[in-house]
Design goal:
20% of the residues lie in helices and 26% in strands. The chain is an alpha+beta fold and 191 residues long. A 4-stranded antiparallel β-sheet has the order 3-4-5-6, covered by helices on one side.
Amino acid sequence: MTETPQSPAPDQNHEGAETARNLPAQPQWPASGPGPQDQQGPYGPQPGAFPPPVGGRYQQPPQPQYGQSLPADGLPAGPVLVTIGDISVEQQRIVTPAGVLPTHGANWSAMDMSRTEEKIPAWAIVLAIIFFLACLLGLLFLLVKERKTTGFVQVTVQHGNRSHNTHVGVSSPNQVADVLARVNFARTLCV
């Protein structure tokens, strides 16, 4: 036997029941301790709000741990001697976004991932064509070269089982030489 849903009587208002069925369930707060009024926003509990424990005090969620504590955390901070991308090198420690490393025993590596292209600019080709018709001296414009450097230098610092990579963007051969000189200076501090 199959049951069929019955339609509501015309005088009954079931609109509230329909909307309540479509709403997400509200969290049930324990009766002890301060109520959820501190965490209520206009649309219910605030994001990241946690119900109070049975003792009645709110607790903060645990903070994520991105790395282990290193003995370098206890090293004294000093002036920054050289900066390579997002790596700062001091006398006794190396500060990176991944954590603090001691300078003694750190290994540095740098890899030049840039390239320099040489080409004849468009204006030189146009002038060579125009002046070729006037005289043969227009061909000298074809000797003009334009150099463009693109890419980055990848710098890696490693101490023990921890390492950090950074990419330093470069737009000229002088900038490549500057980054490599900074890495060499940092190597001298890590001996």
